[in-house]
Amino acid sequence: MTLSKLVLRSMRKNLKHYYLYFFALIFSVTLCFSFTTLRYNPTVQEALKESGTASAGFGAGGYILYFIVTFFVLYANHLFMKRRSKEFGLFQLIGMTKGLVVRLIALENIILFVLAISLGMIIGFFSSRLFAMILIKMLEVDMIVHLSFSQEAFKQSVIIFSILLVVILLQMTWLIRSVSLLSLFTAAKTTDERVKRFSIFHMVMGLLGLLLIVYGYYQSTLLFDAGKSDLFNNLFLHMLIILGTTILGTYFVFRYSVALIMNMLRGSKKGHLNITDVLAVTPIMHRMKGNSKSLTLITVLTGLSVGITSLSYISYYSSETNARQSSPYDYILLNNQGIEFLDRLTLENIEYEKETYDIASVMLDIKDLVDDNLKNSPLFSEETTTPVIPLSQFQQVEPSIQLKEGEAFVTSYVNILFEILPLKKEQNIVVSLGGKDVSLFIKDIREDYLLSSRAMYGGPILVVPDKLFEEINTANEQHEIYSQIGINLVHEEDMPKAEEIYSSLAEERQVVLNNKNYTQSSYEQLRENNIAIFGLTIFITAFLGLAFLLTTGSILYFKQMAEAEEEKASYMILRKIGFSSSQIMKGIYAKQAFNFGVPLIIGLLHSYFAVKSGWWLFGTELVAPLVITMCLYVMMYVIFMILSIGYYKRVIRESL
Amino acid sequence: MAVLVGRKIRKTYGKKTNSQEVLKGIDIEVNKGEFVGIMGPSGSGKTTLLNVLCSIDHPTEGIIEINGQNLRSMKEKALANFRREQLGFIFQDYNLLDTLTVKENILLPFSISKLPKAVAESRLKEIVELLGIKDILNKYPNEVSGGQKQRTSAARALISNPSLVFADEPTGALDSKSATALLTNLENINKEKSVTIMMVTHDSVAASFCSRVLFLKDGVIYTELYRGDKTRQQFFQQILNTQSVLGGDGYDA
């Protein structure tokens, strides 16, 4: 029999083992190829022309993707090799040299890679169109995506996977050359575990792991605490500490805490275990040593990708609210500039509603409203110019609000300021009224959007009774922006026409702000800008998130397949002495819930605290984007879990 | 009273064109309190017969009844329950779970039954004293000797008070001292608690502990020997003689 014949035969015989590795390969090629194809797709490039950061984003995303894929393929290959070690041992036993065995496996792998790359590229070519359509949809651009085969993408994928093939071949050569014949036969057995007792050391380390995670979480809530004077100097250091403690903590939890908790649980039963203990608790406990590293990695990757995806989703999700904050009305006219906009709207028969604001300003010392421990914050500037509007005009949006004399409230206090410097209501503050100090009782801190936020320097607005407003207006220096007209369209379909008029009056609308010319953008313009920026970001992060997810899910699934095979003997014993397969499956469900559930839950917790600490830097809405992202992750994990349970079912059925 | 009755048991492996008949119509009856040995050369169908009788494998033809219950009429789940509650198993390679301690392994059959802990505990106490493994209860299988493992396995088989215990080459992996200890234990349990035991072995010494030995050859029962009042030594001689007629342990002479 020639070598090539032997290779083909052994490949055919091993198909059952190969298919897993083969799919891992195809899947990796598909991801890489469709991503690069997308990058060089003319339609996509056209749509992203305006965004300068687009190609940089694609570039960075591509590198991360290659990294994920490399890691994944190496891992899959490692698992696969371990399963076949006996076969390699046998080849050597019948007199093949190590060199010949290496050549044999190299040949197999080259065939596999060529097949996988061709198949993966075909699938990737078609799936790239789907991805392109999703991207175009996200960017809200009307375009038809044309399929085009990119030579550049082809070249890049071939290069990447050729390098990967070489690495794998080296890995295998090293593996086969470095191990003895005997250990090849037992490689599948010497894997993890082997029962050991649990000591005080384990207990201490287990507790330490839990403490480290809790400490990391606690630190993350303090990350942007303005009360600390060294906030911005040590921000990076703090982040590193949080990252370090949570990752180390996660490892300790998997390495020690899990076994510790389970050991206590088991100890309390005094030998009278139930079927779940027998099939889930004890095997997990004894495998934790070998599995802790990969579970830590999976957990951290899950946390990372959920976190990043959530943050970019928060940005995307907030594009509307963001735009609403910058321009609370569809159109805004400042200082009555470009007032002809209203006439033009009437001329075009466009119905609208308008609200007018008069704006005065006071010097306000916000210090009186913050907590004592925040008073030394470096973020804290002295008195700031704060816009003031009369209550009657505020009632245009919120008629129910009333103020007594000497009372006032603060509004438009949102987002970043709100998170870093929370204000307390029901405090007295002092404002100066033409050199004379007036004390005001701050009744409430609100979040309404009323005025163009740029024109108000992004700060809060003070609302006072009309009488006081008049006094302020006459006594104090005029605010740079002394009036605002807010216009909302009655019929949304008038939007395109109104937009046209609004931008044609750009010059007329110009005002002076901070000694510079400033032109207010319409709500729609702001929203479109945001979408263009964040649409691409979320697309790339979601793509990478998907890659992470499928990778971690597959690794968990592969590991469970291997475990199922290894534990087949136990299932055989149990079935012989009288456990039915459905009774055994009950234990397996618990085991799968643990194996998939715990990394997922800890990963989600990590991402929750990571996102929670700084989400307001990215957008205005936390709950919905975070929950949606997490639900998607949970769903995908459930699918992998079901696959894994199906595999166990088959193994158990075959075990008697 | 017959605990186990087998009638015209046949077992064929493989497909029609390439089939091999391993059991060729075996009739067997085991009474309560008996210690039955099954001997025969390799390939004679000993283990197949045992597997078929204990419901791990299905016969191609024939009827098997244990305690009057026909195994063929039972579904997988009912069979599993039946095995757990009525039968005990001891295997050559111990078949203990590595991840459980000795005590947990012995109590394994109770892990899905609702037996009160106190009852289980008292049965455990009795059985481990009988088998002399009280001191190793909290050890893991990889920390104890082969003989201790096999006694653990025996304890697990006996803990649910089975009406019938099947042992497949229980001494196959043991040194002679451990083997003798185990067999003495089994013999005592058989006599004192009148537990019915059926043991497959190719070791004549092991077989001499039985009260009756069946000889299997090429899928049929060749002959059977009763120990009666003979001493173990005399019975052993008799077994050896029969074996030499049969053609030794491995190949035809």
Automatic annotation (TrEMBL), chain A:
What residues does the ABC3 transporter permease C-terminal domain cover?
63-176
Q: How does it sit in the membrane?
A: Multi-pass membrane protein
| Protein's GO biological process | transmembrane transport
Keywords, in A-Z order? Cell membrane, Membrane, Transmembrane, Transmembrane helix, Transport
Q: What is this protein called?
A: ABC transporter permease
The coiled-coil segments of this chain are: none
Q: Which Pfam families match?
A: FtsX
Which residue ranges traverse the bilayer? 18-36, 56-76, 110-136, 156-177, 198-218, 238-262, 295-316, 531-558, 593-611, 623-648
- Where does the record say this protein resides? Cell membrane
Automatic annotation (TrEMBL), chain B:
Q: SMART domains, per this entry?
A: AAA
**Gene3D superfamilies for the chain:** P-loop containing nucleotide triphosphate hydrolases
Give the superkingdom in one word.
Answer: Bacteria
UniProt entry keywords in alphabetical sequence: ATP-binding, Nucleotide-binding, Transport
Q: What InterPro entries does this protein's entry cite?
A: AAA+_ATPase (IPR003593), ABC_transporter-like_ATP-bd (IPR003439), MacB-like_ATP-bd (IPR017911), P-loop_NTPase (IPR027417)
Q: Carries keyword Nucleotide-binding?
A: yes
Keyword ATP-binding listed: yes
Q: Name one GO cellular component term.
A: membrane protein complex
What's this protein's name?
A: ABC transporter ATP-binding protein
